[in-house]
């Protein structure tokens, strides 16, 4: 029997601030509430680095910018999980070091220990953490669902192409309202 987990990825203050959408966090909260009500584990995935950012190469455009923004916002405040989706007791928080939720994290250990083989993906950005995690999870033979309206991207057309044309090749794509936690 398949065991699902809801992945809530990169919903950190510094990230959310870059993607203003007043309807996004309420939809995400609904997905989290539905998962909890269905007894499905909620895994919050955050990007994080050691003080001074020794994991960030000078060659890394994406994370170099994130480190600067987080430092400007106050390192701890910028990297914290957004207060509208604060983890509750029993939720799992995984820290990653790159775009994919698997990169530099212990996510694989958490999934195997919990017997989880079906990931329900949400997060910011569709073209970042969601895409990278989906591809790596598919290569690990995990079953995947993407909650399209619980993903967000700065480019609506990129989001549309990914959720309508790319993701369906490796995942079931649905909405928060249509998702049945199992």
Automatic annotation (TrEMBL):
The keyword Cytoplasm is annotated on this UniProt entry: no
Source organism, top-level taxon: Bacteria
Pfam families: Isochorismatase
CDD domains referenced in this protein's UniProt entry, alphabetically: cysteine_hydrolases (cd00431)
Record bears the keyword Metal-binding: no
Entry EC no(s): 3.-.-.-
Keyword annotations from UniProtKB, A to Z: Hydrolase
UniProt GO molecular function: hydrolase activity
Transmembrane segments: none
Name under which the protein is recorded: Isochorismatase family cysteine hydrolase
Organism: Nocardia aurea
């Amino acid at each position: 029997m398949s065991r699902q987990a809801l992945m809530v990825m990169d919903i950190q203050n510094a990230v959310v601030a870059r993607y203003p959408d007043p309807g996004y966090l309420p939809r995400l909260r609904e997905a989290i509430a539905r998962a909890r009500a269905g007894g499905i584990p909620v895994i919050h995935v955050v990007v994080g680095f050691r003080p001074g950012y020794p994991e960030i190469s000078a060659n890394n455009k994406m994370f170099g910018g994130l480190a600067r923004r987080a430092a400007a916002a106050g390192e701890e405040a910028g990297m914290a999980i957004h207060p509208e989706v604060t983890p509750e007791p029993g939720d799992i928080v995984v820290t990653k070091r790159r775009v994919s939720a698997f990169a530099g994290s212990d996510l694989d250990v958490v999934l195997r220990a919990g017997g989880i083989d079906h990931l329900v993906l949400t997060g910011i950005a569709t073209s970042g953490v969601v895409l990278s995690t989906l591809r790596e999870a598919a290569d690990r033979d995990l079953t995947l669902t993407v909650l399209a309206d619980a993903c967000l991207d700065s480019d609506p057309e990129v989001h549309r192409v990914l959720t309508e044309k790319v993701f369906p090749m490796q995942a079931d794509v649905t909405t928060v309202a249509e998702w049945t936690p199992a």
